[in-house]
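User: For a benchmark we're assembling, each entry needs the component sequences followed by a predicted structure for the full assembly. Here are entry 17's components. Please fill in the structure.
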Amino acid sequence: MARESTPNSTPQIKAQLIEAQDRFIASWGRMGSVWGISRTMAEVHALLYITGVPMCTDEIMDRLRVSRGNVSMSVRSLLEWAVIEKVRLPGDRKEYFQAEQDVWSMLRAIARERIKREVDPLLGALDEIGELSPQIGSNSPEDVIALHHRLDEVREGFGLITTLTHKFAGPRGAGLQTAAKLLAKAPVGRPTKRHKATESKRNPRRGSRS
Amino acid sequence: MARESTPNSTPQIKAQLIEAQDRFIASWGRMGSVWGISRTMAEVHALLYITGVPMCTDEIMDRLRVSRGNVSMSVRSLLEWAVIEKVRLPGDRKEYFQAEQDVWSMLRAIARERIKREVDPLLGALDEIGELSPQIGSNSPEDVIALHHRLDEVREGFGLITTLTHKFAGPRGAGLQTAAKLLAKAPVGRPTKRHKATESKRNPRRGSRS
DNA sequence: ATGAGATTTCAGAAAAATCTGAAAATAGAA
DNA sequence: TTCTATTTTCAGATTTTTCTGAAATCTCAT
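Assistant: Structure for entry 17:
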């Protein structure tokens, strides 16, 4: 039950531990920016996850060397993502935060959020565009038909992805993990015969320029 | 075979068509920034995909209103992603570009690239961190054990994801589509019983504060 | 209610990403 | 090879995102 420190902890080991944590935090933070979340937000999450210790705003500020405002906003987003939660310690007025400790729940949260922010808006836009574009009649010009065809394909592809995400990446449940294991065993589909340029046979350039 | 224009195309319809294309391009471009690729790169791809027409640098510049340098760099990235390809028209010195027309191939490319840029570096870092951190002995302090445990969990989770991606998102083949359909049918896993705070029983704060 | 401590907000500062434009490099035709 | 259309490169400009810090707001024990 860890008191002043943990058993057997030499200062030497403690330093290595912190070094390792910092490296993890840095890597996770770097990824964060690639995921479209701020570096700090990712770092706060990494810190809470890798240490497993609930921390308050000041502790996070000190450890990551970032401003109070930044921590406040990052924490709020993480709470929305549901990958950390508030903890109150009796007799302490501060709020502490602790990370969800199950990796899969974390991965599900990431998947969910990304779909929400990336795919849903696209699907919405696709619907609007479909309505707005010239409707298909008995003898529409071929480029109008092609447009609808492509819009439909994109909608179908991303639609399927959204459905799957809702199915497997709910905030609770072993969905993602199940899916992953299922797929790991499944045989992979045979390559399709290459059909480049499904649409533009030969080269449909020339004309239809301006 | 479309000559001066397409059959039945009134100027009215043509305008609507272009309007719809532009909206698609704009949406795709917006998504691009969320995917960590530049807006222009996404727009170039959208333009080539939605029109289906091979275009040269100047045509892309004119349609998207961006600089030559920007188009050049975007096109290069798209070629690396393998979602567009070069086309040469005999008797024309310019290079034309045309988009892969199969949505799934496009989705696979996106998945592949994201894994390469986001997950692979993380896995590399995790290995390094594992070596660098205090090694586990017969009676290591509990926080060192916990660190290794968490590093392993993360590595395992993302490792599985990488494996799946390599399996299902190769540049050829119907892998992703197969996987998606497979999953769409599969029964979803039963929710796990909630086990919050797996790690920190009670509240392991106090002490170990430094 | 009061007030000390804690959190949120947000305008402006700082940093990062993206884009431009023109010079340099390249590549095809003759 | 030479000439020229085309492409690439990259320093600096622009735009976007993120961060800071302090004032405003909130909240809870008394």
